[in-house]
């Protein structure tokens, strides 16, 4: 595979290690030479250069660090611009290791936000809380991809305790100036961060998003029907309110411990990084002259302290993976995602307070062999699971589920009710599959007062509500899922009950706000053919099949070969992007029903017409 890389960070070596050819694309920069400051004009000019390069050396995908692969071409239709990767038909992945708001300082926020709606742009976020808030805001293509260790040759021998200096070291800069002398901020900008920091002292699992919107209700979350300007204004206000929270996190998780240890341990604590002298008057060691010296430092230091800066809410920094990859002993302040990546106590050590930190330092300096064993275990974990080659494999699998060009279809100006009644004015039996709480059963009953309606809903709690609704409608609730086999299966329960699915969660899907998993349940699955035989219903009496089974529509059709021979109408949900794992897209369903003797009569837009729609198919020759 040939991959176009922009500001590639650690991806080039990973691509080479995995046997992929790369094309290095120069990054647009701002007036200060920083890629984060690249303007619309500079990104547009650079895209023209990329077009020329890629015409000679075409690539299959684009991969960048920090959103530098976001660029523009002049629109062919008006004075606006098009996204370069969409015009070229190339999926783009951007790896973010900082909040997204810091990555596009040269672009107007409304421009950035509208670009974020691109379905063919995967936003790989290193921090789960940051990824979640973007998904809550309705951004498609958001995936959680942790940082990793770079690809290089590491010394895998056990630590040589004779070379281990009995010191504690921290490598990292002082990177918040929020509390610098002379800076003043309105109290309204300090309140959200103060409140959330306070509640996290007792409830560390609470995210800033949850506290801001749900607990304290400091702002209204964006709604799907908000005008674009309103949505952008709400999101901009949210991120502005979060600035002080990031600064407070930096003090809570990093600066306090550096100041404490430097005063408590003095020369026994070695500090390497910029800004500590000017911010707090702390003495620091010089920077490392080479990467080899940098990684060698971790092996020769008894205790490598790792402290995450304020940009991360739940995630890990790159130092977690660099220290362990080098084979050094790591001790870090506990972070929500740490246990997801390492076994605490066996592959790294953690502390929770100043006293705990001192106690742990004394303990591990007195138990050198335990340090050696933990360092070896941590290295095995990182080298086997947390290199950038591992992250690259994951990202390349996401490319397969990402369409380069979202489907462009023509929607009907009529409604499904008008078309259905015109095509089949008096149906005998209607199968309402994926009935949820009976919304469509109600619609069918209004349209067809005499039809027999069977509503299938497998989730027990939802089925109870369906039964109540079906009673006055004269519809028959059926506690089954429909699929391509008869038996038992796991249904994935989601944040929105209407999104429950037999298919698994698809990372980066544009509807993650609704499709994220919150649990699971064992349900009974039937084929429609088998159900007809078991319940003594002649398949030839079934005139209309409605399928809204959240990505499993094709499986349900596979299990209805006999029913499809007589059915007159099929009304079903179709996806233009991968909303669920392995879900078929619209062209595949369209082709299948065409082969079965149906023609597509109409497509009806959803509230997210770029992601999914409802399609109506009519039998070519009604029996």
Q: What do you see in this structure?
A:
- This protein has 623 residues and is of the alpha/beta class.
- The protein is built from 23 helices and 23 strands.
- It has a 7-stranded mixed beta sheet with strand order 16-15-14-20-21-23-22, with helices on both faces. A 6-stranded parallel beta sheet has the order 2-1-3-6-7-8, with helices on both faces.
- Helix 6 packs across helix 8, helix 10 packs across helix 11 and helix 11 packs across helix 14.
- The protein is elongated.
- The mean pLDDT is 91.
Summarize the structure.
With 623 residues, the chain is α/β, with parallel strands linked by helices.
The radius of gyration computed from the alpha-carbon positions, rounded to a whole number of angstroms, is: 28 Å
Distance between the termini: 50 Å
Across the major sheet, the strand order is 16-15-14-20-21-23-22
* Helix content class: 25-40%
How many strands, which pairing sense, and closed or not: the largest β-sheet?
7 strands, mixed
Number of strands: 23
Uncertain parts? none
Could you say which overall geometry the principal axes of the C-alpha atoms support? Answer: elongated
